[in-house]
């Protein structure tokens, strides 16, 4: 913010007087000479150039200013605005070079908007003009852009063909920045195709050029790319060298966000490769620079690194502490992952405590047995002379009884340990499956949502495309919530009635807060037995049936109220979902997939599903589940 106000002051007191005597053409050229380093300053100069050209009826420089503004706005990601400016210049000018420049920039806008076929047409039209003018540098630039379009379309052979054409021209012109860009684009294609050796070769060449140009930002980015390829090739030491080089350069140019990200990457690589002790200093540095730059993602990642570090050091208590701090940074969509991880660390911590308690009990038992033996021996010694023969028989009987008791206690202890070990293994297996679901499905769905959000906020998208992306994001979010419910069921040996009622009550509370029109209520019969339990499959099926019934009521019934009731009737659990809505005629309405799914779920758990509906009155869905086998009366 301070830099921005400083720039405005400089513009008022220095820039304005300095350029006041310059022509529109001079201002245009000056702005484009430094627009990448300072786009805001370039925009001010180009707008001033346009005013000067308009006042002097210089249409060529006026539309040149407009097109140059379009080029600057493309780099700022404002594709729609940039496209309109270049389209205006294209429609009004008769200068072929300006037309080609406008066409190239419109192609960049369409590529950014995902309109790849339109972008290809614009680029080819621009290329035709530059070929006629024999402008080799511009030809190479446009050819490289065409290669990028083919890359986005997945036509990699064609993409590489155009990139290589550009490379030949840039090399003949000794345009090192152009060569670096081409090599970088080719490397990305090979990396996406899994050809890491070729990708590494091209990224290294790009890095070499950036070093020759002494472009620190370019060097940092290229070094990071090289490090990433080495990481995927499992060449960890080489990856670390380049990641550290990237971090050092980012630090030198004051990009603290980049420094935090690089140090987090280094720490992750070290922990994954059992070099835990080395990782601590990088985690500390990552956390410091992330806080300096106030980058939430990097702070969150650093806290996660701390948790992984202490977990690897077998300090589960500290690992749990950092993981709970890390969980506060995570988005609410990812709460199911946080809960699973915290549960795992809690189990490990409690298991350690239980093992120590068992060892302590064993020591106490051995000491008590030793004391008992000493007392028995002392008593037997005092009365041994008087009743020797009787005592021998009595002693034999007591020793035998003691041995039996000791064996019994040892067997009970072994059984208890075996039971605890079995339960721990089962719980670890469930947690492993939960982690696999999250890592392989949940993380990918979350990545999709994050990518869609980046597209929506990073680019100015058309309304239709934005709505489509919003629909995909909402569908993916719903899938994540369903995955969280599945993980909830998997993490339990059995689901009690209280667990199920609590889960349903939470769902109804969320639905109630989301709808201002519908009244929700949840009633549970207190006479239902507390010891009533369900398997995870039964509990999940009951929960899904209730979810589907409520969704149908909200979607089709125009309901004013929805009630969920749990009752115990004639040794049956009756679950009723009743809505006051418009109802339907059971004889004329075709049952959809939702109702068929509810019936299948009821069948799987041995329950009956009944649906009763009256027009303009409402609909009642009943699930009848026998409970006489669910608990011992």
Automatic annotation (TrEMBL):
<dbReference type="GO" id="GO:0005524">
    <property type="term" value="F:ATP binding"/>
</dbReference>
<keyword id="KW-0812">Transmembrane</keyword>
<dbReference type="InterPro" id="IPR011990">
    <property type="entry name" value="TPR-like_helical_dom_sf"/>
</dbReference>
<keyword id="KW-0808">Transferase</keyword>
<keyword id="KW-0418">Kinase</keyword>
<keyword id="KW-0597">Phosphoprotein</keyword>
<feature type="domain" description="Histidine kinase">
    <location>
        <begin position="542"/>
        <end position="629"/>
    </location>
</feature>
<keyword id="KW-0802">TPR repeat</keyword>
<keyword id="KW-0547">Nucleotide-binding</keyword>
<dbReference type="InterPro" id="IPR011712">
    <property type="entry name" value="Sig_transdc_His_kin_sub3_dim/P"/>
</dbReference>
<keyword id="KW-0175">Coiled coil</keyword>
<keyword id="KW-0472">Membrane</keyword>
<feature type="transmembrane region" description="Helical">
    <location>
        <begin position="378"/>
        <end position="397"/>
    </location>
</feature>
<dbReference type="Pfam" id="PF02518">
    <property type="entry name" value="HATPase_c"/>
</dbReference>
<dbReference type="InterPro" id="IPR003594">
    <property type="entry name" value="HATPase_dom"/>
</dbReference>
<protein>
    <recommendedName>
        <fullName>histidine kinase</fullName>
        <ecNumber>2.7.13.3</ecNumber>
    </recommendedName>
</protein>
<dbReference type="Pfam" id="PF13424">
    <property type="entry name" value="TPR_12"/>
</dbReference>
<dbReference type="Pfam" id="PF07730">
    <property type="entry name" value="HisKA_3"/>
</dbReference>
<dbReference type="GO" id="GO:0046983">
    <property type="term" value="F:protein dimerization activity"/>
</dbReference>
<keyword id="KW-0067">ATP-binding</keyword>
<dbReference type="GO" id="GO:0016020">
    <property type="term" value="C:membrane"/>
</dbReference>
<dbReference type="InterPro" id="IPR019734">
    <property type="entry name" value="TPR_rpt"/>
</dbReference>
<dbReference type="InterPro" id="IPR036890">
    <property type="entry name" value="HATPase_C_sf"/>
</dbReference>
<dbReference type="GO" id="GO:0000155">
    <property type="term" value="F:phosphorelay sensor kinase activity"/>
</dbReference>
<feature type="repeat" description="TPR">
    <location>
        <begin position="180"/>
        <end position="213"/>
    </location>
</feature>
<dbReference type="InterPro" id="IPR050482">
    <property type="entry name" value="Sensor_HK_TwoCompSys"/>
</dbReference>
<feature type="coiled-coil region">
    <location>
        <begin position="342"/>
        <end position="419"/>
    </location>
</feature>
<keyword id="KW-0902">Two-component regulatory system</keyword>
<dbReference type="InterPro" id="IPR005467">
    <property type="entry name" value="His_kinase_dom"/>
</dbReference>
<keyword id="KW-1133">Transmembrane helix</keyword>
């Amino acid at each position: 913010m301070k830099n921005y106000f400083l720039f405005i002051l400089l513009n008022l007191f220095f820039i304005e007087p300095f350029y006041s005597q310059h022509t529109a053409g001079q201002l245009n050229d000056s702005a484009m000479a430094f627009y990448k380093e300072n786009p805001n300053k370039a925009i001010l100069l180009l707008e001033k150039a346009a005013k000067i050209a308009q006042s002097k009826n210089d249409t060529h420089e006026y539309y040149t200013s407009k097109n140059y503004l379009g080029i600057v706005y493309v780099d700022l990601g404002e594709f729609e605005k940039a496209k309109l400016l270049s389209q205006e210049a294209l429609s009004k000018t008769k200068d072929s070079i300006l037309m080609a420049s406008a066409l190239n920039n419109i192609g960049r806008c369409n590529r950014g908007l995902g309109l790849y076929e339109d972008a290809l047409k614009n680029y080819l039209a621009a290329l035709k003009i530059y070929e006629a003018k024999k402008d080799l540098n511009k030809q190479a630039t446009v050819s490289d852009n065409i290669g990028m379009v083919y890359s986005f379309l997945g036509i990699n052979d064609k993409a590489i063909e155009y990139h290589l054409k550009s490379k030949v021209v840039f090399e003949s012109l000794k345009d090192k920045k152009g060569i670096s860009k081409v090599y970088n684009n080719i490397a990305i294609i090979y990396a996406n195709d899994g050809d890491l050796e070729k990708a590494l070769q091209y990224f290294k060449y790009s890095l070499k050029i950036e070093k020759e140009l002494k472009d620190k930002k370019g060097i940092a980015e290229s070094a990071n790319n090289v490090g990433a390829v080495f990481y995927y090739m499992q060449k960890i030491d080489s990856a670390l060298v380049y990641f550290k080089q990237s971090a050092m350069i980012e630090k030198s140019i004051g990009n603290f966000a980049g420094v935090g990200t690089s140090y987090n990457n280094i720490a992750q690589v070290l922990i994954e490769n059992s070099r835990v002790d080395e990782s601590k200093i990088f985690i500390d540095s990552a956390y410091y620079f992330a806080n300096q730059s106030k980058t939430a993602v990097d702070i969150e990642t650093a806290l996660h690194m701390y948790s992984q570090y202490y977990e690897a050091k077998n300090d589960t208590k500290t690992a749990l502490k950092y993981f709970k701090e890390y969980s506060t940074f995570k988005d609410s969509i990812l709460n199911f992952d946080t809960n699973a991880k915290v549960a795992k660390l809690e189990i490990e911590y409690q298991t350690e405590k239980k093992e120590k308690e068992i060892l302590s009990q064993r020591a106490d038992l051995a000491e008590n047995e030793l004391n008992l033996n000493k007392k028995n021996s002392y008593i037997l010694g005092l009365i041994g002379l008087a009743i020797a023969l009787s005592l021998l028989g009595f002693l034999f009987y007591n020793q035998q009884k003691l041995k039996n008791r000791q064996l019994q206690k040892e067997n009970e202890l072994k059984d208890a340990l075996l039971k605890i070990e079995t339960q721990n293994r089962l719980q670890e297996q469930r947690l492993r499956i939960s982690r696999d679901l999250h890592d392989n499905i949940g993380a990918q769905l979350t990545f999709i949502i994050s990518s869609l959000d980046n597209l929506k906020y990073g680019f100015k998208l058309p309304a239709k495309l934005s709505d489509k992306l919003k629909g995909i994001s909402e569908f993916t979010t719903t899938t994540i919530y369903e995955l969280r419910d599945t993980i909830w069921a998997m993490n339990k040996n059995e689901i009690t009635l209280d667990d199920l009622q609590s889960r349903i009550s939470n769902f109804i509370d969320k639905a109630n807060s989301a709808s201002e029109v519908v009244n929700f209520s949840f009633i549970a019969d207190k006479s239902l037995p507390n010891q009533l339990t369900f398997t995870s499959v039964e509990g999940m099926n009951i929960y899904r049936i209730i979810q589907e019934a409520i969704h149908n009521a909200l979607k089709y019934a125009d309901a004013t109220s929805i009630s969920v009731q749990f009752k115990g009737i004639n040794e049956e659990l009756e679950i009723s979902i009743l809505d006051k809505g418009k109802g339907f005629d059971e004889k004329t309405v075709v049952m959809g997939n939702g109702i068929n799914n509810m019936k299948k779920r009821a069948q799987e758990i041995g329950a009956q599903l009944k649906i009763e509906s009256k027009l303009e009155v409402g609909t009642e869905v009943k699930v009848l589940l026998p409970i006489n086998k669910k608990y011992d009366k």
